[in-house]
Write a structure and sequence with these properties.
With 354 residues, the chain is of the alpha+beta class. The chain contains 9 helices and 12 strands. The strands form 2 sheets. It has an 8-stranded mixed beta sheet. The chain is globular. The N and C termini lie far apart (39 Å). The structure holds ligand L37FFZMX, 2-oxoglutaric acid (AKG) and fe (ii) ion. Pfam families: 2OG-FeII_Oxy, DIOX_N. One of its GO terms (molecular function) is gibberellin 3-beta-dioxygenase activity.
Length: 354
């Protein structure tokens, strides 16, 4: 799916940038944090302790709708349990990710993401917005991972590919179920949220990207950044953060709050597009990942969005005299283009002055 027809084209790396922003360091050989990866300690300063953390929602709970609405309004994030995705699949994707990131660097570079593309091995795209580099590496997949998996393991890519494909199938089902709950919690029906109706070129398919993240053991975590603060551009992101902590979410007037790993749970992030549809009522979650000195951390993010050329705009049901319309219509493609230039300010560029 690496063509101009998909959203992948919108978050391609600017071809003129330094390859340092694509090719990760050979982390295993580094005993001291290099200057290139040394952030000021104020940027990496750790989280605050809070009494009540990110809400956890058991999908079988009769109160799930109310809990989800409250969590999205207050945190832009919650964790889900009892979601139906087999634990075995979660263990398998963790295993396959570790297998991939454990390869020697020269082998991983066989599948490096090219500047024009969105899939393959490399540093997270947002690294181009920062002068310091991240203590992390990633592998992005859209649809079939076959092309890059063959480059890594010419004869032994079957298990990897099967797990990635199965995981994407399961996560698409779960994401759509959670999206339905989120809309229902605001009394919105399918008709109220037009983003899945026919797109201009007749394609009705939602778009999704699977991102495997690896945060190697770090010699000086107090000065390193795994993934800098950002919001996801998606409608919704489902993150499996294994059992090693590192994810933090920002709360206004509170600070950075740790998202405690819960065995077998998914973290659900409200993305920018959901924030637009809800006219700001559900908050897009500002989050980041820090690293540690003892454990290699893996996380798996599934970004889900609408067909690329469908207009996304605030639902009129959530607009009234007290809640004026905040955003103008935008397609996911246009928004990703804007995000690739304006990064965390992209929402401001489509906001009406109120
Ligand atoms: C579908 C997408 C979401 C994403 C941009 C992209 O087109 C492809 C990569 C995704 C990712 C993964 C790491 C974090 C993130 C912020 C980034 O830079 O690239 C997200 C993007 C996003 O949500 O904007
Ligand atoms: O690794 C994590 O906990 C966060 C990953 C993330 O935010 C992302 O991939 O967008
Ligand atoms: Fe994210």
């Amino acid at each position: 799916m690496n063509n101009n027809n998909s959203i992948s084209a919108s978050f391609k790396t600017n071809p003129t940038i330094n390859l340092d922003h694509i090719i990760p360091l050979d982390f295993k050989t580094v005993l001291k944090l290099p200057k290139s990866h040394s952030w000021s300690t104020t940027t990496t300063s750790t989280h605050v302790e809070v009494d009540e953390g990110v809400p956890v929602v058991d999908l079988a709970d009769p109160e799930a709708l109310t809990l989800i609405r409250g969590a999205c309004e207050k945190w832009g994030m919650f964790q889900v349990t009892n979601h139906g995705v087999p634990i075995k699949l979660l263990k398998q994707i963790e295993f396959q990710s570790k297998k991939l990131f454990g390869l020697p660097t020269n082998q991983k570079l066989l599948a490096v993401r090219s500047p024009e593309e969105c899939t393959g091995y490399g540093l997270p795209r947002i690294s181009t917005f920062f002068s310091k580099l991240f203590w992390s590496e990633g592998f992005s997949i859209m649809g079939s991972p076959l092309h890059h998996a063959r480059q890594l393991w010419p004869n032994h890519h079957f298990d990897f590919c099967n797990v990635m494909v199965e995981y994407q199938k399961e996560l698409m089902g779960l994401t759509e179920r959670i999206l339905g709950l989120m809309f229902t919690s605001l009394d919105l029906t399918q008709e109220d949220v037009k983003c899945f109706s026919e797109s201009k070129n007749g394609s009705k398919h939602p778009q999704a990207l699977l991102q495997l993240n690896s945060y190697p053991i770090c010699p000086d975590p107090t000065r390193a950044m795994g993934l800098a603060p950002h919001t996801d551009s998606s409608l919704l992101t489902l993150l499996y953060q294994t059992n090693i902590s590192g994810l933090q979410v920002f709360r206004e007037n509170v600070g950075w709050v740790l998202v405690n790993p819960i065995s077998g749970a998914f973290v659900v992030n409200v993305g920018d597009l959901m924030h637009i549809i809800c006219n700001g009522r559900f908050k897009t979650a500002l989050h980041r990942a820090l690293v540690n000195q003892t454990h290699h951390r893996i996380s798996v993010a599934y970004f889900y969005g609408p067909p690329k050329d469908v207009n996304i705009s605030p639902s009129i049901k959530l607009v009234d005299r007290d809640h004026p319309i905040l955003y103008r219509p935008v397609t996911w493609k246009e928004f990703l283009d804007s995000k690739a230039t304006h990064f965390n300010k992209a929402l401001d560029f489509i906001r009406f002055d109120v």
